[in-house]
Structure formats: C-alpha cells, structure tokens
C-alpha cells in the first residue's frame, strides 16, 4: 500500500556545497540518500515529493560539516499481509517462484501455486497447467496475495499465494 | 414472500446469533445477566414488525432499552438491520404511531400517545436484502476458512536440511537461494534443503508432532462436515429465497408516508381515521386536524380562516373523541387565569407535580371516561366563551407574541410543540395571566408524556381531569 507521509532526516552537508545553491544541493542529496531505501517502519521510500521545512544548520566541531534537519514529504510503499499485489516473476525453481512488485520481493512457494500447475525444469523453468494454457515463467506478470511479511529494520520480504480466486497469471510474456 | 425471508432471518438468528451476548460480556455471568438467546428473540420480534421505534420494541419485549440498543447496535454492525435516528417532538412520534396503526399488525399504540420533549428516537427495521447477502457471505467465508486450513493454504512452507536438521521457512527464501543451481541450500552446511512434507498447519502448533497435526486435520474435516449438515436448512432457505423479490420497507420516512396513506385509504372517514389524519406527515394540514384548529382559535390572534370556532361552536354537545377533548381542555386551561397557580408550581411542565393536580387526580380516578368526556365538552364550551370574552377585552402584546409563536408551529400541526414553546415563554413571564393559559399546553405535554409511557395511561387520564377541574373552578 502506498502512503504519502512526512519524514524527517538530519542531512550532513560538506562545506563545498555552501553558497547560492545550498538548498538545491541539500534537496538533491536528500533524494539520492533516501529514495529506494527501506525502513521496516515506513516501508520503501519511493519518491521525495516536497520539502516541508529545513531547519537551522549546525556546524559540527572540527569538521566544518553542517547538519540540517530536513522535513520532507515522500511516497512510501509498505506491503501488508492480505494485500493483493501485481508482480513480475523474476525467478522460477522447483520450490516456487520469486516475484517483484516495485521494490518488494515476494516468494510464492510451490504449495501455494494451484495444484494443477506442475513445475517444468529446463531452459526456462516454469509452472504450467496440464493443458498448457497457463504458464508462469520469468517475466510473467502475476496477481498474488501476501500471506506473510518479514520486516527487518532495513528490509521487507514477503511470501504470497496465487492459490485463490482471481489470483494467478495476468499477463503472459510469451503471448505479448 | 415475506414469510420466506422471515424464515431465513429466524434460521440465521439461530445459527449465528444464538450466543450473542455471551460474546460481548466480559464479566462473569450471574443468573440475572445471562442473556443468551436474547438476540434470537429480538430478531424474531423484528420479523413480525416493519419499522419499529426501539422504545416500543423494548417495551413489547420487556427488555431494558439499553440492553436492546446494545444488541441492535451489534446487528447494525452486522448489517442485518437498518436504523434511523431523528430528533422529534411528539408530532414525529405521532406520525410514527399513525403509521403503525395503519399497518394494522396489532401494534397500535394508544391514542394520544405523545411526547413532551424533543427527543432523539431511534427506529429499526430488518434489511432483508442485505441479510440475504450477509448470510451468504458469512457461509462463504466460513467454508472458505475451513477449506483453506484443511488444504494448508496460507500456511508458510517449511524446509528442512537433511544433513544438519536445521529448519527454515518460506520467509527465509531470499537467503536460501544459491545461484549455482536453483535450489535452496542450508546456511550452515550448504546441504540441499527439502520441503518439510506434510507440514500441515505446523505454524499453529509450533513444531507440533505428526499426531497433533493429524488430529487437527481430522477436526477440521469434522467441522466442515458438521457445518454442511447443520446449516443445510439455512442454505436451502437461501436458495428458496433466491428468486423472490425482497421485501423493502424503504426509509423510515417513506415507510411512514406509505403506511399512513394506506391506513387512511383503508379506514375511510371514521373517527379513527380523523385521528390519524391530523398527524399529517409534512405538517400539511389534514382534513380533520381538529387539534390545530382549536389552538388557533384560542389564541385568537391568528386568522380563523379554518373556521375552527364555528366548527366547535356549531357542534351540538356530543361525546368527542378523546384526542379532541384533550386539545379542548388544553385550550380552556390556557384561557383561564387559574393557570397562574400552576405556573408558580409549574417549573415542570407536567402538572402532576402540583399538589392541586394530585387532588384532581383523585377526583379523576372516580370519574369514568364517559363522564369525563361530557364534562370536558361542557367545560370546553364554557371556556371558549370566556376566553373570547377575555381576549376581546385584553389583547395584550405578550399574548399576541405568545399566540404567534404558538401559531408558527401550527404549520406543522404540532400542538405539543406549541405547548412547549409557549410554556417556556410563560416561565419567563412569570405569573402573568395570559401567559398562564399556555401553561395549559404544558399540561397537555404532561399528559402526552404519561400516555407515551403506556404504563401510566391512568395518569394521563388524571391530567385530563386536572384540566377539567380547572374549568369547573373557572
Ligand atoms: Zn544444514
């Protein structure tokens, strides 16, 4: 699920960036620093959308670096148990398959793949129905439901299922 | 068709809400607080009604209102009943009563049942269309959940290292992939992990032994089977109801309008009809709105366009319907200066508090209704005459203002409302004569209230008597 929230961060800026463009430098450094990171609490920071407030800089003793407290708005993505996501398959093996929904990695174990889909090893490992009409392989797009998350301080990993109504392949790369 | 739906409701009630209060109450049960099954009783009662005022329902079921409300709130959350709230005076209550009377399901409230104050009333009604969906959805979810567990869906796959015995689960998957082959490998010994087979519902029992798992599985199967058997009647009823049109009562407002219209049509012109009709829904004047007319006349300030006076005067003395009598009495009392006494004591609108009222009460009790009626009428006419006299002589501005305020509400035909307003003014003014008459309305209010409490019907009569006595004194 996406959220638009305000976060705060203390930015350290090297004195060489001081000058007319200090603010711009600060903002671009902020984006470089936080976009794409993940915190267990807020999820993945997808994009910084605005600066709320930049506090007074504090010069650090001995270094000349200045610390600015920056409040910024950003879009974060946080997966939840029970959430339905659309994801792209990245890897298929006999244990199941891995998929990505944006920054989130999801593993679907083979017992959460419908029973009528069998693992086929080979050049392109895949899960296929007996009549061959549905196939899951690398780059397939699937709709899945998250049934568990593992949230660490800097990492979120999910496991999902496609063994339910309206879940499964939504776009087969071989037919496109 | 409604029968089928009602049966559905009853079955669902017994299947799902049988143990309802037990769930919500934390405190240990004493014999008295054991309310098991109350939900079923309430739902059954609702199948015999359409829109019902919750207080009335509580009274009918001999339940405490709070208790009823708690259950109803739960049903509301369950989406099986619709509720409506509105702040209303006696008028609103009357509209509802009229509508109820029109539905003719034996729930008729007493005539003259009215309210003193502006109260928030809540009404409830079964929402059959939604019940149908809710029950189906519930069944679906129940089945789904059991099947999921049975098929080990939504459980987290476990893996075990055959070499060192270390266990992993699917959440570790990312760490376990090795990029040499596509298998999962043990972090310790790099052995190939194997799927923990037959890992049924292991998550719940920890690493529960196989026996526990098997037992659990048996239990689930058993539950699923039992469910199918025990809920069969409900499922059958659902399919029976499937193609039937759903009973719709609409919103409270539209239902009232419909019901009272139907009632009027059915009743023709008899007295009962007139009683209902003056409850006109939007406050649009109804043909028989005798109450309103009387009020206007009394105030005298407003146009008598309605011909109230003539109507009342012209009538030969005969037994008036009770509602008429009441309004008449109110008027006379108002006219009278006697109200002054009442005002003093009157802080409360219900005159019953006044000691002199009590005297009257005793008297009243002796009287029979018929006698009372006759007396009322006589007193009423006498009072009317006197009133006119007084009005002619002393047309005070205050009176005017009073009457005007009184008249404004008349647009909505609510006597009670008028009474309330005037009463307040009266309080402000203190002991003034003309104001005092309005106090009569206050009495009227009191009687409404009493009547409203059904139980105290006698008291209401007593109030009437009070008024009666006043006239006699006058
Ligand atoms: Zn190992």
TrEMBL record, chain A:
It holds the Pfam family S1. Signal peptide: none annotated. Keywords: DNA-directed RNA polymerase, Nucleus, Transcription. InterPro entries: NA-bd_OB-fold, RNA_pol_Rpb7-like_N_sf, Rpb7-like, Rpb7-like_N, S1_domain. CDD domains: RNAP_II_Rpb7_N, S1_RNAPII_Rpb7. GO terms for molecular function: single-stranded DNA binding; single-stranded RNA binding; translation initiation factor binding. The keyword Transcription applies. GO terms for biological process: positive regulation of nuclear-transcribed mRNA poly(A) tail shortening; positive regulation of translational initiation; transcription initiation at RNA polymerase II promoter. Residues 8-64 form the RNA polymerase Rpb7-like N-terminal domain. Residues 79-156 form the S1 motif domain. It is found in: Nucleus. Its main location: nucleus. GO terms for cellular component: P-body; RNA polymerase II, core complex. Belongs to the eukaryotic RPB7/RPC8 RNA polymerase subunit family. DNA-dependent RNA polymerase which catalyzes the transcription of DNA into RNA using the four ribonucleoside triphosphates as substrates. PANTHER family: DNA-DIRECTED RNA POLYMERASE II SUBUNIT RPB7 (PTHR12709:SF4), DNA-DIRECTED RNA POLYMERASE II, III (PTHR12709). This is DNA-directed RNA polymerase subunit. The lineage of its organism: Eukaryota, Viridiplantae, Streptophyta, Embryophyta, Tracheophyta.
TrEMBL record, chain B:
One of its GO terms (biological process) is transcription initiation at RNA polymerase II promoter. PROSITE patterns: HTH_TFE_IIE. It comes from Lupinus luteus. Residues 333-367, 395-474 are annotated as: Disordered. Residues 5-136 form the HTH TFE/IIEalpha-type domain. It comes from the Eukaryota. It holds the Pfam family TFIIE_alpha. Residues 346-356, 401-415 have a biased composition (Polar residues). This is HTH TFE/IIEalpha-type domain-containing protein. Residues 333-345, 357-367 have a biased composition (Basic and acidic residues). Keywords: Transcription, Transcription regulation. PANTHER family: GENERAL TRANSCRIPTION FACTOR IIE SUBUNIT 1, TRANSCRIPTION INITIATION FACTOR IIE, ALPHA SUBUNIT. InterPro entries: TFE, TFIIE/TFIIEa_HTH, TFIIE_asu, TFIIEa/SarR/Rpc3_HTH_dom, Znf_RING/FYVE/PHD.
